[in-house]
# Entry
Amino acid sequence: MTIKHFRDVPAQEVEQGAKGVSIRWVIARDDGAPNFAMRHFTIAPGGYTPHHAHAWEHEVYVLSGEGIATGPDGDTPIGAGSVVFVAPEDEHHFSNAGEEPLVFLCLVPFYEGCPR
# Structure
């Protein structure tokens, strides 16, 4: 069993195609996880993740803040308590629509080229 505080994991800036986004790989292969990674994202006001698609799914749980999830069906407001399922190959991105940081957990299966 691994137990730690998310702040003990260094935040990394997401640079390519993003603005004001940091990521922490809070549970990863280094922790002995065989199948899934848990990532903690913070998006600053006015920030956004890259618009992209890939072959694996995401499960997202919003912890705090207000934002927009953009997917194949357009824009949907999200906030604390919102959950989002992004299916494989769905183009998507997340943006902060509020005055406070948008903070969420994102779980993904390990994929080829996964950095952790």
